[in-house]
Amino acid sequence: MAFTTYTKQELTKKLKTQKKMFAIKCVVIVLMIFFSIFSTIENGMSFHTFLPLFFIPMSIYMFIEMKKIKTELVSRK
């Protein structure tokens, strides 16, 4: 995504929103890992065991996007 079309104010707002969403997503993933471990212990292997693995790449992508936004903001100063 090209961040050069955004204003500095829009980038700052986008970064703030992205940070909040990233924190929420990390909390959800940690909870999913906890519940998947509990579910695996109680019921054995199931879909719930591997569910957090589908969400981790999305969080990694979000983290990379946050880094790109920060880099763009630094380059504009």
UniProtKB/TrEMBL annotation:
The keyword Transmembrane is annotated on this UniProt entry: yes
Keywords per UniProt: Membrane, Transmembrane, Transmembrane helix
Regions crossing the membrane: 21-41, 47-64
The protein's name: Redox-active disulfide protein 2
Lineage: Bacteria, Pseudomonadati, Bacteroidota, Flavobacteriia, Flavobacteriales
Domain of life: Bacteria
Native source species: Polaribacter marinaquae
